[in-house]
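TASK: fixed-backbone design
INPUT:
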């Protein structure tokens, strides 16, 4: 069995990318995530979004890949954002995530919504989205908000990964870092103790196999471009522990 998979051959960790820092405040402060309505999907030709069956449906998207250059570009504000890793322990909502099936464009866009299982149409996408390696948690709300609804975080937070432009010398990332500190100052003070910090951010901590986050621990990392080829690698900045 692959180390990154559980006994059901599902990823043991899922990631969700965030482009704006303020969007993730609920994750730490209120331990909740937003399930947007299918009408908010980024594919304007996605058939299910306009179907009445999905009036009270919300979808939280996940991927097992935290080092996708395209995902950081498209969903994390061109690498100025961050992504959060949720543990899939086989029992929490992450374990109920559905793996997206990718189909040829003409087969997908002209497909009919099955009357006996309409939600299954939310588990397929066109082939050109395949790079996302998307999994979806699909839930039904009570009509409280047509744009979507909040639910408890789908699993234990085990990683916070900053984009490669999150902390550097540009005006934008300095502002972003200050905003990060301001938004999460209360959360860090209230919820975290720093138990280890790589203050020099030296090159000895490139993590293909990052240090494991034990119970009540969170890894703070950053993705950095590889100097010799097209790709990203991870650098561990700190290890945090949730306060009791």
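OUTPUT:
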């Amino acid at each position: 069995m692959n180390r990154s998979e559980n006994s059901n051959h599902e990823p043991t960790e899922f990631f969700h990318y965030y482009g704006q820092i303020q969007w993730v405040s609920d994750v730490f402060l209120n331990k909740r995530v937003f399930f947007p309505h299918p009408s908010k999907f980024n594919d304007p030709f996605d058939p299910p979004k306009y179907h009445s069956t999905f009036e009270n449906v919300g979808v939280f998207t996940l991927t097992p890949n935290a080092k996708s250059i395209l995902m950081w570009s498209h969903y994390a504000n061109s690498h100025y954002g961050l992504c959060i890793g949720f543990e899939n322990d086989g029992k929490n909502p992450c374990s109920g995530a559905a793996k997206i099936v990718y189909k040829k464009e003409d087969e997908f866009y002209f497909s009919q919504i099955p009357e006996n299982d309409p939600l299954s149409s939310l588990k397929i996408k066109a082939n050109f989205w395949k790079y996302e390696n998307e999994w979806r948690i699909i839930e039904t709300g009570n009509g409280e908000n047509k744009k979507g609804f909040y639910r408890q975080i789908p699993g234990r937070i085990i990683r916070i990964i900053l984009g490669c432009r999150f902390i550097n010398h540009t005006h934008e990332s300095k502002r972003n870092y200050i905003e990060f500190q301001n938004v999460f100052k209360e959360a860090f003070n209230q919820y975290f103790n720093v138990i280890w910090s790589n203050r020099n951010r030296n090159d000895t901590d490139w993590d293909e196999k990052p240090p494991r986050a034990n119970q009540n621990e969170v890894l703070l990392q950053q993705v950095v471009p590889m100097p010799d080829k097209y790709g990203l690698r991870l650098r561990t900045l700190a290890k945090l522990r949730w306060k009791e």
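COMMENT: The radius of gyration is 19 Å.
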